[in-house]
Amino acid sequence: MATRSKTSVWQGDLTPQPQKNSSHSSWRYRHRGRNHKSLHHKQHTRRHLPPELLTQIRAESHGRAYVQKQIRKKTPMVFELYGEHIEGIISRRLTYALAVVSVNGEAHHLEKLNIKYMYKQDEMSQVVQDIEVDAGLKAQNLISIVHKSERFQVDDRVLVRCCKKKNPVRLTLRGGEIITGVIRWFSQYDMKMLLAHGGNVVVFRHGLHRFEISPRWA
Questions:
Q1: What pTM value is reported for the model?
Q2: How far apart are CA 92 and CA 194, in angstroms?
Q3: Euclidean distance between the first and the last CA atom of the chain, given in angstroms as a whole number
C-alpha cells in the first residue's frame, strides 16, 4: 500500500560554498587544500549513507537533465495535460513550468502541475498502444491538486526497490490513463517509464491516482 513520503535531498551537493577573493597566492593554496579536505569528507560521508538514500540522491538530477537534453537537441515532444494535447519543442525550463514552441510557431507556457506525462514525438506509435484508459475515472474529469499534502503519495523506498529489481509497475493517473512499465529513473517530481513496446514516458508524480506493482508488463 502506498504511503506518504518526503524525498530527501543532499543539500551539500546543491549549495556551493562561498568563496573569498584574495591576491595572496599562499592564501589561495591553503584555501584550495581546505576545499580538498571538505570534498574528501563529503565523499566519505556519502559512502556511509544507506544504499537506498544514495540511489535517490543520484536520481534527483535525472528529471532536470532529461529536460535540458531535449532543449539542447531540440527534440519534438508530446505533452498530455488535463483536457489538452500539445506537441512542440521545449525552449526553456522554468522552476514550475516549461516554455514550449509548437510546430506552427505558437508559444505555450505549460505549468508543470497541469502536465500529466510527456514523451518524444517519434515514440508516439509505441507509447499510445501501451496506454489504457479507466473510463470511469476519466469521466470524473479530475484536475490537478495544488497542495502536496493532498496528493497521492508513493514511498520512495518502494520506487527504489522497483527500479533496482526492474519490477513492472502500474500507474493510474488522475486523467484515467493507465501506464504499465519499468521505472528507469525517478526523482521527487517525476519518473521515467519504459513501456512494453519500447516507448518511454516521463510521468509527473503529482498526477498519480493509484500505484501498483504489476505481475506483468501489459
A1: 0.73
A2: 25
A3: 21
Distance, in Å, from the CA atom of 51 to the CA atom of 37, rounded to the nearest integer, reads 24
Cα 136 to the center of its chain, rounded Å:
27
Give the mean pLDDT of 26-45: 47
Q: At what angle do helices 156-165 and 51-59 cross, to 10 degrees?
A: 90
**Domain map (residue ranges) of the chain:** 62-213
- Other beta carbons within 10 angstroms of residue 61's beta carbon come to 14
Residue type, 87: E
Q: What is d(CA 74, CA 37) in angstroms, rounded to the nearest whole number?
A: 41
Q: Residue 47: what pLDDT? A: 58
Extract the C-alpha cell encoding 65.
Answer: 537533465
Q: Give 156 or 79, the one with higher predicted confidence.
A: 79
Q: 24: which 3 cell numbers?
A: 595572496
Say yes or no to pLDDT of 55 above 90.
no
C-alpha distances out from residue 85 to 27, 116, 197, 204, Å? 58, 10, 22, 15
CATH number for 62-213: choose from 3.30.70.20, 2.30.30.100, 3.40.50.1110, 3.30.1330.30.
2.30.30.100
